[in-house]
Amino acid sequence: FENPKSASINVAHRIANIIRKKQAENTFAVLGLATGVTPIAVYNELVRLHKEEGLSFKNVITFNLDEYYPMLPNASQSYVTFMNENLFDHIDIEKENIHIPDGTLPLEDIPDFCLNYEKKIAELGGLDIQILGIGRTGHIGFNEPGSAPNSGTRLVTLDDLTRRDAAKDFGGKSFVPTKAITMGIGTIFKAKEIILMAWSRKKASIIKKAVEGKISGKVPATYLQLSNNVEFILDQPAASEL
Ligand code: GLP
């Protein structure tokens, strides 16, 4: 795409089409959502479709990819706050249909929580669509280098580069949590459609590795080369090294 705006509008309209199709079938749309700067314009367009074109989210169930650990939901850096501010506060989604990994759990409760997260997605028939950004380590969600292709939702340790990139949001790297709860590569793979978005020159070299590089756990996004249901939606600068 020529620019992130036109690309984001395209992605938002595809999500809206899934929601409308499921409404016509009287069933739920199950969406896998992402955080970061990359999907913000997608969320803006979904909010616009709700406010100006009457798109309803009453039949939408969402699962977010990840959350820092530990993290209080009302902290300004939490992905709960991000999703509320950028999407959920502005649409008619039912609160009980929103799922975001819980950054407040005691450590010993995390494995059960993660199994349950997988189970809920599976019981709904899987994710109809999963949107993704990409980190400079090649992470998707918070699946850092070393993640296994069949990994499920779990507690992970964040890469140093990821923590450096997040430092601006936390007022310094030392304040960035060292861990996160993330859906696994295997969880993402089960989605019926996967859309990875990347904008700007900053993402060009990791996009080249993800699309054309050797498939390896060193760059987790390379595993997407193994899926038939994945699309990379890029602006021209992000695609410039392909
Ligand atoms: C974080 C998120 C990822 C996101 C990445 C890139 O690490 N956990 O899901 O893709 O950042 O963020 P941005 O879109 O701000 O470049």
From TrEMBL:
Residues 4-226 form the Glucosamine/galactosamine-6-phosphate isomerase domain. This is Glucosamine-6-phosphate deaminase. It comes from Chryseobacterium glaciei. The chain holds residues 20 to 261 of 641 of the full protein.
